[in-house]
Amino acid sequence: MSICIPKQYANNIRNIVATSKDTAERVQKFSEFFNGDIKKGQEINLLYEKSLLLKKQQSALDKFVDNITGANAETKAKMKQAIADNIERRNDIISNDDLLSISKDIFDKKYKLDIPPEIVQKMAKLRIEASNLKKNILDEMPDGSPERMVYGRKMIELSDEIDALANPTNTMNLLDTIKSGLKSDADRINNQTNPIMKIAESVRIAGDYATTAAYKGINASVDISYIFRQGYKVFAENPKIWADNVIKSLKLVKGVTKSVEKQSVLFNEFRANLVSSKNYQKAIDAGLAIDVIEDNFPTTIGQKVPILGRLIKASDSAFSAFAQGNRMALFDDIIAKNINGVADNPQLLKDFAKVINSITSRGGLGGLESQSGLLNRVFFSARYVKSAIDTFTMPINTSLSPEARAMAAKNSAKTLSLAFGLMATASQFTEVEFDPRSSKFGKARIPGTDRWFDLTVGLGSYVTLATKLSGAPLNFAKIDVKTIKSATSGKLSKINEGGFGARTGVDVISDFTLNKLAPAPAVVRDIFRGKDFSGEAPTATSIGINLFSPISPKNVYEFWTDESQSSNLVNAVSSILELTGVSNVDYSKFKK
Length: 592
Hints:
mainly alpha, 3 domains, three-stranded antiparallel sheet
């Protein structure tokens, strides 16, 4: 049957059919599935029996064709195919007509929406059209071929229809989105039964606004920092795949000259190519993070802001295309190599998908996956942090298969070799910090300045953290007193030594964690600290700038307006590095 029914419901129906002893039991189970609605149970059972009858018809007709004398094998095959096509067309018509009310009931149940029958009819039609197109895609047709793209566009159209139903504000303009949100929040408060609950709900809503993910989308936009920040490990793994996806993503960056609607069309071409690829379904089943919402751009509301929205949309599209394009290409490469028959080994594919997700800066959260929404409000990207940690831990993760661990180990070796190779090369021309006790570890000085750029794209900070904590993790035991090297003075100070005001492992972990906060929690951190990342006391103006300005362009602006670093060449180099994901830190700001 070709009908747009969510996968989990289809699986439930299959299980009912497989476990029922007779018609009566099957009808009863169908009724229970629809909350005791016997009419629905009888209706869907009738559809099952109609489908079964059609299959029996085809089997009988196939036998009839086999017994025809005077027809060769080729003629018989064509006759069978014609019969099958005719029955399939009849099956589609039956499904489309008879399953309409049931599919509507399922969508209403899933999304808690009252969906007009004509919308369900449209989705059913799209699904049937897509299904028919897929039958005409031959295995030998390459990914990206016109035939595959037609099918992919139809699937994206269907996906967007469902998304529009589940998230109706996605198609609204900024003002209507705000109005809809305010009305929804007012309803939430009014639905509470007593004053205390109304106050509690009001507080929750205020918290939602204060920690909205919209700030993050603005902060992460208007740059191409993903090239190295999210692409560093991909470059180490496969430079060609990295380069191909850099080029594809930059084509979407060019879309900044077009309207948000036209930008969506450009991005949908990427999505269509993705969903129509040969290994797409295997990738989805394996848990590869494709056609997903990325942590850096968790909401579309920023895209509705006049002028800035166009920049945010271009950044979102380019970031997503780069990350997901890399994932799919690495997954295709694994299947092409067919290590230990991986193409036909679902569990092995899942393990490789975990490694590939991590290589492309989307580490798995494990048992905290269900709390990803909360983590995404607190941290800028918990998955990015986890992927960095995976660089050091995934090669020894015994829950993965040996083949997947081997891939993780090779990538870690390549990544760390790349980092140390860059450090060694840069040291021939300028000062480089090789002492892992310093927060400058892995950074190189821009000659003649106090600006240092990170050759490890953040991985060095994890080495520094581990170095500081080795031997006495949380100050619970004073084992091998460790030292910290000041990034500004170069002086060494002890941790876990004891005494009033002494630095401890807890302080080290706290500082590290607080530097990973999302925009809104970071503002709270700065207020309590009494200074922001620039070393200045936070003001209403600085808070507004930090929340509502893209990070990289803001840093570039500071480069060019910093009178102490007035060289145009230095500013140009710093700007290019910053915008492509190689962060710069001016340590003169932290000197006392």
